[in-house]
Design brief:
Blueprint: E1 3-6, E2 9-12, H1 16-25, E3 30-33, H2 37-44, H3 47-54, E4 58-59, H4 64-72, H5 83-96, E5 100-105, H6 110-121, E6 126-131, H7 139-148, E7 152-156, H8 161-169, E8 177-180, H9 184-189, H10 197-202, H11 205-212, H12 217-220, H13 223-237
Length: about 240
């Protein structure tokens, strides 16, 4: 499995099907991260975050900006493997064999709503536990997860909190696979709509989400800065 360096973050150069196969083959307790440009920029100024991301079992491309940066740097990535695309494919695999899932994160009540929708959409999956993302001490949450030993643990605390939580709890949390997924529980709960298929195909989900969620504008305006850094790195390499 080859990795491609994009501004310090080592991305796995995989298609969605390949990423699913890799995820299923990882040792129990492994973690999956799905960096977008915002996470890459945060990692560049946070060595702890960079190490957690790059030492993860699977690092997928979540964000069209990563693809643009790869092109600027002259590096090849097969395409995006978004967090929600990956977890949906994993749900389908788990449903076929009666797998178990634990949902951790989002506002109170959201994980429970998402659990109902997931169970209805993927018959065969057992959502064995839920907990919101509001806590000061996670010891009881970890105990609950470990009692249930889920095949898949969705950690939806927002970046970089979720990545740092997974990194610091590796070897402590008893789950088949941990995956950091930001606002995915709100999507499954029905509180946030995914972009129409055309937007997804064109890789401009970020535009749809900015229009429908203006609060994301502050985050998305960082994309030009990210691409500028990639262009600067390319120019350095050409000297």
């Amino acid at each position: 499995m080859s990795r491609v360096d994009i501004l310090g973050v080592q991305f796995d150069a995989l298609t969605l099907d390949e990423a699913v196969s890799v995820a299923e083959s990882l040792p129990r307790g492994s973690r999956v991260v799905t960096p977008n440009p915002e996470i890459v920029m945060a990692a560049r100024s946070d060595p702890e975050l960079m190490e957690i991301v790059n030492c993860s079992g699977l690092v997928t491309v979540d964000g069209i900006g990563i693809i643009y940066a790869a092109k600027l740097l002259g590096r090849k990535l097969p395409g995006r493997v978004t967090g929600i695309g990956l977890v949906t494919a994993l749900f389908e695999r788990l449903a076929s064999r009666g797998g178990t899932v634990y949902l951790f994160g989002a506002k109170p009540g959201v994980a429970e709503q998402a659990a109902e929708k997931i169970a209805a959409e993927f018959p065969g999956i057992s959502v064995v536990g839920t907990h919101d993302g509001y806590f000061s001490d996670d010891s009881e949450i970890i105990k609950d997860i470990n009692r249930r030993r889920p095949d898949l643990l969705l950690v939806c605390l927002g970046a970089p909190k979720q990545e740092k939580w997974m990194g610091s709890r590796s070897g402590v949390v008893d789950a088949g696979l941990m995956i950091g997924l930001g606002g995915v529980l709100d999507v499954y709960a029905g509180n946030v709509k995914r972009a129409p298929k055309l937007f997804q195909k064109l890789g401009i989900e970020w535009l749809y989400r900015t229009v429908t969620q203006p609060s994301r504008l502050k985050r998305n305006i960082k994309l030009p800065g990210f691409l500028f850094v990639a262009l600067r790195e390319r120019c350095k390499g050409n000297k």
